[in-house]
Specification:
heterodimer; A: alpha+beta; Alpha-Beta Plaits; 4 domains; five-stranded mixed barrel; about 25% strand; B: alpha+beta; 2 domains; four-stranded antiparallel sheet; elongated
Chain lengths: ~600, ~300
């Protein structure tokens, strides 16, 4: 019962304290505003980097810190004004088809430290930014997957030379109507080649025989999965186009996508671009007058277009916006993929002198509440933006006019990034402006420091030397929490700061339990060394029990929580675990070093 | 040795009637408040919009109200938030408005109605369906936490302790929620997180007392259960008071300096800590005593099975 420290315990405590301080250190330096340039397809070359550097110094930026990180060019500035000015300078001088320029916040600590440790990642509520939860409209995805079979069926029926057949998508199923059962039974085995994707059904009425089909359950699940995946890819492309650095785009559940854009302030444009489904379609103007009726945008008149599409937006692989040199109006320059180009060439070859129309398509989703039920309503807007005589054979590259300038810019962006496979709806938005973010950091930091100081002073006053030791443990605990958060790459949020503050108050409980126990043992007449030893041993079980139950609540919170709440749960969990180390192990080593093994009559407790 | 609480020997257990009266009154008041006034649920649970904007000078709220009413937006509630230059606008979800587009529109309308600059501080939009899900998930989380804790106490202590601790927890949760209903303080996701933290804290407190009760039942040769429990509560009283105090110190710091957004959260925890400290002494312990705890319940379990196995 000598209460002495084996050497390894002292060394372990010292090592952990030093490592903790080292890993918490980057947070002291904070972050600097930066402009980031990255290549659209290839990493940057040294020549390009030196060009950017030159551009900046020509614009009057002196002594700018330049970093090359994972193929990106980063220029650090002292103020946000400089950052925004530099971004404009760079964005104006660079080809947007080759480079993406964006604003970023980067670690401001010196290089040797950056190689060791990273600062905590600040949540959107602390650095400002947008959080969207988007729901993918799976019904539309399934419908369009089924619709895609219609032209295929038509081709097969034509190939068999069967006449008097009508094939369309109606009432939520693919439906083929035949003159009689003989024809139908001839086609059935041919259509049933798709038996892995479709469930087939046959029926007859007085006049006709029918085959109807729907996606099988497996195919439907697969279709939904791929719709979600493709939407995530498209969203990622679009967000890159917007020039947002470090976006988060993640699947949540089976039909939702979380999008987080740190630092974005123009949320209106972000929403427009992210949720947009705008695309183009090229069709011939119907010669016979039988076709599908469309509204013309510029005068509201009706025009009949062929039911067969020449080229859809999916076949557009590149697009840019600009000004048409002849008319002087905004234009979208379109590049088709090889299949699309071939088809365009065939059609225009046969139709020189006829009219071709460009259809602008957009899906809008509204949530409407009817009799307490929330119903989603998808409105498909289709309008003809332009009809023109085919003068020449077109193939892979041509231009389309008929849109406003901003619309043309956005459409080119959307066509470049690819279409959403199914429309999305924003079902949750949380945006924090930069001014509130700064206030949150300042207030959170202040409340943590004041709280910590109050507890340390109180403990020092009440338990004297032992209280000072507990206070040291408490400060170490906060340092360790910060270090662990940095190492785990966890996100610090405002509730997360609250979690740290709360842990500070509760972590000291372990020491209160130990010290009260030691006092009791001393009062009961035990020797100083026996009291120390018994105090720590007896309190340990209680501390463990009490902390495990808090840990249960924190884990539940973590597993059900969203964003900021998760941040609270994480810091609470980490804080409970690190406090067990600092409050029990840490203080014991110090107490032993100061008082262990000595002949003492009393303790400063 | 500085002491706030010196060797006490209060007779907590005989005064259970007072405790029952106080707790009974608070519980009934809370249930009535929840039942009649209801909780003022935030957009997290109801769905809708919360938009916070900042002005350079304190704006006239009526001008804002008029501007919003004229603009054909959903009905709104306008109030200042923390400072007189910060304005909070709440709107219910309404038919015909595409999800998040309302916030953009509100900012445009306010910008036009004001001569000075209006800055966007915060926008929260929760779709009605997401709100419903969060409500469900939140309820489930509280139940899951209660269940996990009961299981742990049952495993570590004994059935009567586990019943006592759950009574105390339900007591704390109902009273804390009741306070929010009575004063119509907005109840959102962060408050729910605070309630779960209260569950953790209150239990922490209860367990320290229970641990001592178990220890004393095993080590004390004489004494009625009531005497053993009284002595245990008195022995841990100093620790209970000190820990509650340090926790309250940091919570008050959070309440005063943490900013308006964290106010409700800090408030819920402050109430929870006060009620939780009271309940670990007066609710949990007294319940355990009334359930008829005895020394036999706590003696280490004889390994009956082992003996049987060795019999041929």
């Amino acid at each position: 019962m000598t209460n002495t420290n084996p050497l390894w315990k002292t060394l372990l405590l010292a090592a952990i304290a030093i490592v903790g301080v080292l890993f918490a250190l980057p947070n002291i330096f904070g972050s600097d505003p930066a402009v980031q340039v990255s290549g659209r397809t290839d990493p940057l070359t040294p020549i390009e980097v030196s060009q950017f550097d030159l551009t900046l110094s020509k614009a009057g930026f002196e002594n700018v810190e330049i970093r090359i990180d994972e193929g990106r060019f980063l220029a650090l500035f002292a103020s946000e004004d400089d950052q925004i000015r530099a971004r404009d300078v760079l964005a104006d001088s660079l080809d947007p088809n080759r480079f993406i320029t964006s604003l970023n916040l980067v670690d401001a600590s010196p290089e040797w430290l950056r190689n060791i440790a990273a600062p905590m990642y600040l949540g959107l509520d602390l650095r400002g930014g947008v959080h969207f939860l988007m729901e993918v409209d799976m019904q539309t995805a399934l419908t369009s997957a089924e619709e895609r079979f219609v032209p295929d069926w038509k081709r097969r029926v034509r190939g068999e030379g069967i006449r008097g057949t009508s094939i369309q998508y109606r009432n939520g199923e693919i439906s083929a109507r035949f003159k009689d059962e003989a024809n139908r039974d001839l086609m059935l085995p041919i259509l049933r080649r798709d038996v892995f994707s479709l469930d087939f059904d046959t029926s007859e009425d007085d006049e006709y025989a029918y085959i109807t089909a729907n996606l099988t359950e497996i195919a439907a699940v697969e279709e939904q999965r791929s719709a979600l995946q493709q939407n995530i890819v498209t969203l990622r492309n679009r967000i890159n186009e917007l020039g947002v650095s470090e976006p988060v785009i993640q699947q949540q559940g089976v039909d939702r996508i979380v999008v987080q854009l740190p630092g974005v302030q123009d949320t209106g444009r972000a929403k427009d671009i992210i949720g947009a489904t705008a695309t183009l379609e090229y069709r011939l103007v119907s010669l016979g007058g039988n076709g599908k009726a469309y509204t013309q945008r510029y005068d509201g008149s009706t025009v009949m277009l062929d039911r067969d599409i020449i080229v859809t937006g999916d076949q557009i692989k590149g697009a840019s916006s600009g000004i048409d040199q002849q008319s002087g109006s905004a234009a979208v320059f379109v590049n088709l993929d090889s299949a699309g180009a071939r088809r365009m060439q065939e059609v225009t070859q046969d139709n020189v002198g006829n009219l071709m129309a460009v259809v602008y398509i957009e899906n809008r989703i509204d949530s409407v509440e009817v009799d307490g039920e929330i119903i989603k309503k998808v409105t498909k807007i289709e309008e003809v933006i332009n009809t023109a005589t085919i003068n020449d054979v077109l193939s892979h590259r041509f231009q389309t006019t008929g849109l406003g300038l901003n619309e043309a810019t956005d459409l080119a962006l959307l066509l470049r990034a690819g279409a959403l496979k199914a429309p999305v709806q924003i079902v949750e938005e949380r945006t924090v402006g930069p001014s509130l973010g700064k206030d949150n950091i300042r207030q959170g930091f202040l409340s943590a420091v004041v709280g910590l100081a109050l507890v340390v002073v109180f403990m020092g006053f009440y338990y004297r030397t032992f209280g000072v030791i507990a206070g040291l443990a408490l400060v170490t605990n906060v340092v360790l929490i910060v270090a662990v958060l940095g190492v785990l790459g966890a996100t610090l949020t405002l509730p997360g700061i609250a979690g740290i503050v709360l842990t500070t108050g509760m972590a000291v409980d372990a020491n209160v339990l130990i010290f009260e126990r030691i006092r009791e043992e001393l009062k009961a007449g035990g020797s100083v060394q026996a009291a120390l030893s018994a105090g720590y041993d007896k309190a340990f079980v209680t501390i463990a029990d009490a902390n495990i139950t808090t840990l249960i609540a924190a884990v539940v919170l973590f597993s059900m929580g969203t964003g900021p709440i998760k941040g609270f749960a994480i810091t609470l969990c980490i804080g409970i675990l690190t406090s067990m180390f600092t409050a029990i192990f840490g203080t014991r080593v110090l107490v032993n070093a100061l008082f262990g093994g000595k002949r003492l009559q009393t303790l400063p407790i | 040795m500085r002491s706030l609480v010196r060797d006490t020997s209060f007779d907590f257990m005989s005064h259970y009637k007072v405790a029952v009266m106080i707790s009974g009154f608070l519980i009934v008041a809370s249930v009535l408040a929840i039942g009649f006034r209801g909780l003022s649920l935030g957009v997290d649970f109801t769905g809708g919009y919360t938009i916070e904007v900042g002005y350079e000078e304190a704006p006239d709220l009526n001008v804002i109200r008029t501007a919003l009413a004229v603009a054909d937006l959903p009905d709104s509630q306008v109030q200042t938030f923390g400072a007189s230059t910060e304005v909070l606008i709440r709107m219910a979800p309404k038919e015909g408005f595409t999800g998040a587009s309302v916030s953009t529109e509100v900012l445009r309308v306010l910008g036009e109605a004001s001569e000075s600059e209006v800055t966007m501080r915060r926008v929260e939009f929760v779709g009605p369906q997401v709100g419903e899900e969060l409500r469900e998930k939140g309820g489930l989380a509280v139940l899951a936490a209660l269940f996990g804790i009961v299981a742990y106490i049952w495993f570590r202590f004994e059935k009567k302790f586990s019943v006592g601790s759950v009574l105390a927890l339900v007591h704390d949760v109902v009273i804390t929620v009741g306070f929010f209903a009575l004063f119509q303080v907005e109840f959102d996701l962060t408050i729910l997180a605070a309630i779960l933290a209260v569950i953790g804290y209150s239990l922490n407190d209860t367990i320290v007392v229970f641990d001592r009760i178990r220890e004393n039942f095993i080590s004390m040769r004489s004494g009625t259960p009531a005497e053993v429990m009284n002595q245990s509560v008195n022995q841990t009283l100093s620790r209970t008071v000190i820990t509650s105090m340090t926790t309250l110190l940091v919570l008050i710091s959070l309440f005063v300096f943490g900013g308006q957004i964290i106010h409700g959260f800090a408030l819920a925890l402050i109430i929870g800590v006060v009620v939780g400290t009271y309940s670990s002494i007066f609710v949990a312990s007294i319940a355990v005593l009334r359930l008829g705890i005895s020394k036999e319940d706590l003696m280490p379990v004889e390994k009956e099975g082992a003996e049987l196995d060795s019999t041929p």
